[in-house]
Amino acid sequence: MNAAAMQNILVAMIVAVSAVMALQRILPSHFRRMQSGIARRLGGERHSRWVRCVGRWMEPREAREGSCGSGQGCASCGGCGAAPAAGDAIPLVVRPRPSASPR
Predict the structure, then answer these.
(1) Buried/exposed code over 47-84 (b: 16+ C-beta within 10 A; e: otherwise)
(2) Confidence tier at 90 by pLDDT (50, 70, 90)
(3) Does 21 reside within a domain?
(4) pLDDT tens digit sequence for 13-62
């Protein structure tokens, strides 16, 4: 493998990791849903032991621990509450830039 191919592989890996991190930050609920789906598919009995371990590792923390603190996974008690209410909203104020030269 030459240096150009190695460089292309490294750049592709960096872009992929950056895209995943951005998706996780911008759309957290969609990312968790996607992550849970992939982990559920990998954790099936038809896969080998190491693939099931990867599936368990990929599970979102809420699914492993349970949001109610039961430790039995999300929705184990059926009493998952609504998300906490957001605090006071801060209004966004947009001010136009002062022009450098009068027209």
Answers:
(1) eeeeebeebeebbbeebeebbeeeeeebeeeeeeeeee
(2) confident
(3) yes
(4) 999 999 999 988 998 888 888 888 888 888 888 888 998 888 888 888 77
In a domain, 17, yes or no: yes
Buried b (16+ CB within 10 A) or exposed e, 4-26: eeeeeeeeeeeeeeeeeeeeeee
Count of domains forming the chain:
1
Q: Is residue 90 domain-resident? A: no
Question: Does any domain span residue 94?
Answer: no
What integer pLDDT is reported at residue 17 of this predicted model?
95
Structural domain for 36, as ranges: 3-59
Q: Report the pLDDT value the prediction gives residue 61, as an integer from 0 to 100.
A: 74
Number of Cβ within 10 Å of residue 40's Cβ equals 13
